[in-house]
Amino acid sequence: MKKTLEQLIKALPDCSVLEPSIPKNQFVAIDLSRDSDVLNHIDVSSSQILAAYIDDYIAEKKARYAYGGYMEVRNIYQRSTYFKNNMPSNERYIHLGLDIWAPSETSIFTPLDATLHSFKNNINFGDYGPTIILRHEIEGTGFYTLYGHLSLESLAHLEIGQTFKQGEQIGALGDASVNGDYPPHLHFQIMADIQDYFGDYPGVSSKQDFEFYKQNCLDPSFLLGLE
């Protein structure tokens, strides 16, 4: 019986999108959901205030990086009309990727051998900013990974179809001036099917579309070993 993509990814050794030598105990999980009591008492519309909260949390936990957010229901996106719709049921607030909160200019690496599918600077307020999408293949099964909130320089010398070896640097994180006005972080997402998207793919879902995206966007923890 042919293995599913989830089974294939789970069978891989843990991979990394940051320096592979960083031990897992330097990562701490963070809750940025609408159920977080702390976030309900700070202005999450301010990238500076949110960054201060995340930095303080990382320091308190004696870690270097924070991560989380897969399928997390968030209020953060209410500040941007990009995620709203005339129909309340279409408003997008369910996060589809895994965020890794790290300083700007942090190097980002491909977790697997890859071919560059597409790239784009998504400039809507609250959007990804500079974005790279890679295609991978495991045992004949193809899938895609997205890297959002990168620096502008990350896109400077890319060519569609170029290849990367596992562990090769593909870019670096951008700051709030280019990354959609967020604290510096990587939005990392796995898609079984890229559909017709180019340099972009929804990273936040509405409740109405959630079942489709839940099936198409796998848990990145399976690949990175951050659980």
Automatic annotation (TrEMBL):
Q: Which Pfam families match?
A: Peptidase_M23 (PF01551)
| PANTHER family registered for this protein in UniProt | MUREIN HYDROLASE ACTIVATOR ENVC, PEPTIDASE-RELATED
What is this protein called in UniProt? Peptidoglycan DD-metalloendopeptidase family protein
GO molecular function terms here? metalloendopeptidase activity
What residue stretches are annotated with the M23ase beta-sheet core domain? 94-192
Q: Its domain of life?
A: Bacteria
Q: Which organism is it from?
A: Subsaximicrobium wynnwilliamsii
Q: Which InterPro entries match?
A: Cell_wall_metabolism_enzyme (IPR050570), Dup_hybrid_motif (IPR011055), M23ase_b-sheet_dom (IPR016047)
